[in-house]
Design the sequence.
């Protein structure tokens, strides 16, 4: 019977650190997870091998004993010995209960050599946390501004999820335990809602700031006055100083989007004004503009 080299299974050296072993196991587990290889018997067998290897090498005491026994087993093989006749008690070492040693029945490699199933521990098999799953969801700018509750169906189950204040496109909202099912008695993964904030008809968002293109009439731009500015909370009055030029931007502090991690802090509302030229002038209005032009040319 072929010796099972757990180091080779995980692709690590015999001097690998515990963190190296854990990192290798997680990488292989992700690559060969059944969710990625539905119905693939080879992938299922491979994940069992990976799981078995980590059960031993991931536990310091099991790894120590495996290294000790394994080196002597390989020496016995080189001498032409039958694995089933190998004396594990050589050199003063005695293993009385391999259930204690390996924590449960694994492969035939162990059960054949050690004379049967371990007496204690769980039955070996795949135990792996379910995969995390992502799902795109759309929210309006108003919902991102105030927060919202979304209700949707997943696998026949109705879920209500709270969307926090200040989310932006690319934000992820975690729903614990609603991802892929775990294997064995392992927990399910998580569901991550990936937020897409729909474009707004009036406001453009840049980080936590909002930008508004706002028309004002010529007379307000020239003489000064007030303009009513829409916000996500209602309207505000903005003072327009005399001789305001087209394209000037006014900053209304704290009237932008709440910050995701600090909703009490908000961005700014940037109002860019555009001077609207009057149309369909009457003869008298044209005369007045002509007079204004004459006065300006002096």
Sequence:
């Amino acid at each position: 019977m072929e010796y099972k080299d757990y180091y080779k299974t995980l692709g690590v050296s015999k001097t690998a650190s515990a963190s190296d072993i854990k990192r290798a196991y997680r990488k292989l587990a992700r690559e060969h997870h059944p969710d990625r290889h539905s119905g693939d018997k080879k992938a299922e067998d491979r994940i069992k091998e990976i799981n078995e290897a980590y059960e031993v090498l991931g536990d310091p005491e099991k790894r120590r004993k495996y290294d000790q026994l394994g080196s002597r087993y390989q020496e016995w093989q080189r001498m032409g010995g039958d694995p089933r006749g190998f004396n594990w008690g050589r050199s003063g070492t005695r293993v009385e209960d391999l259930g204690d040693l390996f924590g449960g029945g694994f492969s035939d490699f162990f059960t054949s050599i050690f004379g049967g199933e371990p007496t204690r521990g769980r039955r070996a098999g795949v135990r792996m946390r379910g995969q995390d799953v992502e799902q795109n969801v759309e929210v309006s700018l108003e919902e991102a501004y105030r927060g919202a509750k979304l209700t949707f169906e997943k696998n026949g189950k109705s879920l209500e999820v709270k969307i926090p204040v200040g989310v932006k496109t690319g934000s992820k909202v975690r729903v614990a335990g609603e991802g892929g099912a775990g294997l064995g008695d392992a927990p399910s993964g998580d569901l991550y809602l990936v937020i897409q904030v729909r474009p707004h008809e009036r406001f453009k968002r840049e980080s936590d700031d909002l930008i508004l293109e706002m028309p004002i009439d010529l007379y307000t731009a020239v003489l000064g006055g007030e303009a009513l500015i829409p916000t996500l909370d209602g309207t505000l009055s903005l003072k327009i100083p005399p001789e305001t030029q087209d394209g000037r931007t006014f900053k209304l502090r704290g009237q932008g989007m709440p910050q995701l991690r600090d909703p009490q802090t908000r961005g700014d509302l940037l109002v860019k004004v555009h001077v609207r030229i009057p149309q369909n002038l009457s003869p008298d209005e044209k005369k007045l503009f002509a007079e204004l032009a004459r006065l300006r040319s002096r």
